[in-house]
Amino acid sequence: MNSTSTTTTRNFEVHDSKVLDWAKDIIERSASSRLIQKEIINAVDRNAIWRGEECLNLLAPEAPTSQTVRQLLASEVGTRAAEGHIGPTQRWFSGTKHIDEIESLCVELLKKVFKSNYADHRLVASMIGNMTVYAALTKPGDNILTIAQPFGGHSSNRYDGPAGIRGLNIYDVPMDPVDLVVNMDDFVKVAREVKPKLVTLGASMTLFPFPLKEMSEIVNEWGGKIFFDGAHQLGLIGGGQFQDPLNEGACIMTGSAGKTFSGPQSGIIVWNDPELTEPISDTIFPALAATHQVNRVAALAASAAEFLAFGEEYMAQIVANAKALAKALYERGITVLGSHKGFTETHQVILDVKQFGGGLDVAHKLAEANIITNKNLLPSDKPEDWDYPSGLRIGTIEITRLGMKEAEMDSIAEYIVSVLEGRDTTESIRKQVINMRSAYKKLHYCFD
Ligand SMILES: *Cc1c(COP(=O)(O)O)cnc(C)c1O
């Protein structure tokens, strides 16, 4: 080897180099490509057993999909190309008559679930939905207000995401660090000064509703609009368990199909005003989606049909479980945000775990006990705390779909506290979790 060290000659990687080396080693060691392919399948199978059968998945943005939805994701139609708008004239390719049927069923089902005049089915991610809104409804240099990350804001609406790529000037929506809602007095001041074109309400940490009516009355003074990024709350909204943004003053809403909505991971966008239809649709195609995965569209339509039948009951139980889990943790001495106002009105429970070593440490410790959560920034965290925040975010989507109710939340709280306080060995808690999970195999709120 010459004098240059391996670290400087090596290409820069953002990924963990140890993990990439593991993969390189497998690829080099395997006697044939077929064996490499087998390694991929093995990893998928290991995940399916661990995460699919042995864990309590409490990640707030995750939802298990029904077998029907999963089968549709692997369907033949996923190999077909169908650019453009639905119908025989506005597509580039022919042979799409059945694809038109699938896509129109999807669009009409989404309109029905969200009681909206318009919906689009072509967003391969909710990030693309947010990019669509910024591209269609703003110009570079416009002012917008969005929520900062320590208060639950999401990168898609900040400088490092689509809003930043659009070249917007981003100001913070003032939030109350204790009540975890918009501080209306400060909002009125900032908004009247900055006169934002859009106010984006997008929150990945979300416990309580937003004062949408009051906020829209203010921004209407200069023709500003409210954009509701309901990535997390989408299912709760469709199931009538949260506020109804399009009816309360938001002009457009995006959301993740794979969070509370419990469909295939992708995005949804809905609106009512016919004047938005052209700018939004022209941005989706041809700017941000071409082949948009028709297998995913079929799966999305199928999950919307499940949602029509079971959404209300399913979403109500998700919220009831979150409240029960929050209370059970609080009663065991854990600091739970929003404890002075009923903990939560969503699928989320937010803990302050600073005293247990912070969110990163705690999330890894819980994962060793097969309890999957994520580290989370809290309003009290500073920018330098980014990688090591004080909070932990918990969600009740998956455990609810597996049929768990309030009584089971008590057992889950007990496992979590046992890990946090080191009351029992991780190995022992892990065994108890696997044992508990083995009684909940069937997926509820679907036709399977
Ligand atoms: C998760 C999330 C997104 C991105 O959604 P994807 O479907 O993962 O692209 C956007 N905004 C908010 C507030 C989110 O929480």
UniProtKB/TrEMBL annotation:
Q: What is this protein called?
A: Glycine hydroxymethyltransferase
Documented EC number(s): 2.1.2.1
Q: Which UniProt keywords apply?
A: Amino-acid biosynthesis, One-carbon metabolism, Pyridoxal phosphate, Transferase
Listed GO MF terms: glycine hydroxymethyltransferase activity
Q: Name one Pfam family in it.
A: SHMT
* Statement: the UniProt record of this protein carries the keyword Isomerase: no
Q: Belongs to which family? A: Belongs to the SHMT family.
Which InterPro entries does the UniProt entry name for this protein? PyrdxlP-dep_Trfase (IPR015424), PyrdxlP-dep_Trfase_major (IPR015421), PyrdxlP-dep_Trfase_small (IPR015422), Ser_HO-MeTrfase (IPR001085), Ser_HO-MeTrfase-like (IPR049943), SHMT-like_dom (IPR039429)
Cofactors needed by this protein, per the record, are: pyridoxal 5'-phosphate
Q: Which residues form the Serine hydroxymethyltransferase-like domain?
A: 38-416
